[in-house]
Structure formats: C-alpha cells, structure tokens
Amino acid sequence: MSDRVEYDVLLVGGSPSNLILAHRLVDLAIESGTAFTFGILEKGKDFGAHIVSGAVSNPRVLKKVFPNLEQSDFPLEGICRDSHFSVLGAQNVWHVPRPLMPEGVKKEGYYILTLSEVVKWLAEKLEEKVSAVDHIHGDLFPAFAAHAVVYEGDRVTGVQVVEQSTGSPDEDNIYGRVVCFGDKGFVSRDLIAKFTLRDNPQKWSVGVKEVWELAEGQSFEGQVWHTMGYPLVDGTFGGGFIYGMKGNKLTVGLIASLDSPNPNLNPQEKLQDLKKHPWLQGMLKGGKLLKYGAALLPEGGYYSLPKQFQVDGALILGDALGVLDVSCLSGVDKSMETGYIAAQVIHDVLKSGGDFTQAALAPYQQQVMDGFIGQELKKGRYFRHAWEENPRLLNAYLPEVLQGIDTSSPYAGLISVGLKNNPITALTDALRLKGFIEGTADIGHLRYKPDYQHIIPNYKPASLTPPQYDEATVVSRPDAVFYADPKYHEGNMHIDEFNADVCVKCISSYEALQKTTPCVSDCTAEVHRVDDLAGVRKHGMSLENCIQCRTCEIVCPEVNLKVRAAEQGSGPDFMGL
Fold first, then answer.
1. Which residues contact 226 (CB under 8 A, 6 or more apart)?
2. Cβ neighbours of 280 (radius 10 Å)
3. What is the pLDDT of residues 325-373, one digit of tens each?
C-alpha cells in the first residue's frame, strides 16, 4: 500500500491569499455539491506566526467572503476614522492639508488589522467550516515548510516537505492535482525561475514594525498616519506608518526601499530614529514595546508581474505573484482577491472533472488583470519609477522642504525648492511626478535592474542629527530580536552562503571604504557579522536570530546568499504583529 499523500488542491503558505482561496472554494463546493480534498502547508509553528504587515486594508474582499464580518468575532483592531499624510523634519512635523494629500493615503473606513491574528482567525474558521460538511476534506499543517517544487516533466505535481531528501518520494513529498503558491518567495521563486516567468526582476522594500502598549489614558484608536522625510534623508525611498489600535496599542513602522544607493541602510536603526522624533516621542513616552518584526514587500507592481500566473499544475498568488500597489499602499486586499479569483477557476475544473493544465487555469490570469487588481496596478505602474528616475526629488527637493518645516514653514521650503534650483526644471519635475502618481502619464514599458545593482559602495548619505529622546523608547538591534522571539531547532542551517571567498573579498572592499557589508548593515535582526579568524575577515552568521525576512539575500551585492524556509516550525513568532 502506498503512503503517498495527495490532495486535489495543495496550498503552499498559510497566507491571506491561500486562506481566502480555501474559504471561497469550500463555499462554492458546498453550493455545488462538489467533493474535493485540500491541504495547506504553513512553515510557521502556528498559522499567523510568520505573518507581519501594517496593516490598514480595504475590507472589500473580506466582506465578500464573510458578509456578516462586522457582527462576527473577527479580530478587528479598529476602523480608520482619520487618515493623515505627515512630512517630518528633524524636529517638526507638517500634517499635509487634506486637499493636498495623495489619494492613496486616504484610508477612512479601512480596517486596521493585526494580520497575524487575521490569518489565525481565517485558519480556525476554515477548520470549523470544513468539519460541518461530509464531501470536503481539508488538512491544515502548521510547522510544515515546503522546501522544493516537485515536477513530472514540466508539470508541477507537489512540493518536497523535508529539507534533505531521503530518496523515497512518498516520504519526502506531498502532492496535489493543482498546487497554489501563496508564499513569500521561499519556494515560488524557484518555480518562476524554472519557467522564466518574470522578465523584470521584482523590486523590494523591507518593512520593520513594532507594536506598543501606550501609557495609561493615551489612545489613538482609529487614527492613521503615513509619513515621509525624517529619518530617510539619504535618498532612500520610503516612509513611516503609525496606526492607532484598540486597547491603547500603537503600531509604529518604517518601510525602506532596497534599491537604495546606501549600502548601510540599517532599517531597524532607521525605525529607532523615526521614534526619536519629538512628535513620536509624545506618543510613545511611558509606553511599553510588545512586539517587533520585519518582512519584505514586493513593490515592482505592474511591470514585475510574471508573464504567466499559471503553469501546468500550479497557480501563483498574493505576494508570490507581486500584486502590492505601492501607490495606494494596497496589498492585503489584492492578495486576498487573487485567492478569491483562483477559487472560482479551480472549482470550475473540479466540477467539470477536467485536468489542471495551463490552459484550464488561464482564466485566472485574465480575471486578475481585468478586475480591480489589474486596473489599479496599471494606474500606479510608474509610482516607484518616478522616484527612481529623478534623484532630485529625494536628494535636492525633499531636504529643502524638511528644512522649511524645521525653521519656518513647509511652504517656505517649497518656495526654496524653486529658488535654489532651476524653477523651470523644478516645475517640470513636479508636473511629471504628478502625472506618474495620478496614473495619467504613459512612458511605455519599464525595465528594472535588481535592487543590489543600485548600491553605490562609497555612497555618502546626508548626515542625520537625531533630536533629544527618551532612551526607554528605543531598542538596539540585538535587543529587538527578543521581541521577535525567534526559536530554532538545533543544527538549523537555513541561509546558504555559496562561496566563502566571495564574502571575504566583499568584506575587504567595503571595509576599505570604512563601511560594513550590506548583509551585516541591513539585517533586520542580528544574524550577519564579520569574524576575525587568524587575521582573515570572514562572514559569520548567528542563525538563531533570523526572523526570515530575506533582506540579506536581496541586498547581497555578490548574489552569494539565499534564505531558505525554516523547518519544523522554527523561526520568529510574529503573533500580535
């Protein structure tokens, strides 16, 4: 008798996209009477344990799947009452008047979420739903990572769930008639590479986030701020986010693009600099840090989408697909919508008794691009490019505005932009930026280069003089690891260093410039380090500190690192983030 484990539908990653897919597919199968089996693999020790996001989200997909959502026990942290766009100088803050705010940061009515708790809730409700019907069987597997894609020819047939193959496929693998990749790239990147699905590389940012319990009597529930300016004054695209939640909790986070010219970005340190701002100090003083975490954000958008969203036997969803629209900070809802659409396509094949060929799955891509995902991604297709193509925006114009905010007024800073630069050029730049942000400009197809190729090793960022601050409100990077709570089984080796000699040369070249290597500087935990071994400066790793963000892999200038999925439920505990 075979021990082969096989499902009709195998979902890789306990992500919002895959969980919405499962819910919608079960609902459709209940309505039609279609029998099927499914399994969901999640690498975290619990569903939600490896999930971190902002998150202020449009509830449009959640409400389709759960019409009575607001009357349920859904873990809602609040509904945005007031949204703000704030530009930070080193000392002062300009809350941009609403008529001047970009449309993408207006979030009134959106849900304020702790996404890890949402994922946990979705998993629990799915188990309850499936247990009530006889013709559907579903298994949810926390602490089961997928380590490799399994093929028969060019068809995806499953995933390998043990890190080192035993040589027995039935012991190594879990199979599916269709495999849905809703992961963060740990496995789906290999699928995309095998079939050369992505002509343009993905553009990545890293988000670092903390959750605070505020001092008694201090509450900002329903208030949402997105910020620009301090502390990102080094030409890096990004900004901060502050979300008020119920129970006098506050989310404070920062997003920094990894196509920055700065080789020593240090996102975790930049988040601490953000908290040192007097405006943030007024919120945090007397509070207590509860949680810390970090994750990559796929920001390439429209032009980084794969050529095909499906191959024989497989679909790509959510963050694996890359549907985040950075122009309006919309990712969670779009990821969920990919799952919602995929469910209908999969149900149609199941109901018809057909095969999950690329042709049978092709309606998925068509419907994604014809719906609000494709429409909104197309509108925002030049948003990231606008800041990349014109360094004057962040390196010349923004500092003038920030100086105005600190010394007189933001409007004086805006006038100074025109006076200190060619006014015609400044006006032309402003109009071009406006066209890109609003989606009215069209300059054709974009070509990207990998993020690490933007690094300038001898880059000299603008100096940053932090304001006075309460030391109790900031944490060092080693201390931050405690609040991410990573735990690993003994002997874990989940980051590959392909060639140690390459690292030695990289260290030498950066230290000659009085800098550290990007992997050491930009690590969001305290994993990478430089060791002096018999007079040779070598790369070392404290893998027990890793929080599985993959930033080191993206910024490595020698493409010499690869982060693999932690096994047996190892890694951080992001519950509450």
1. 83, 84, 85, 86, 105, 239, 240, 241, 329
2. 22
3. 999 999 999 999 999 999 999 999 999 999 999 999 999 999 999 999 9
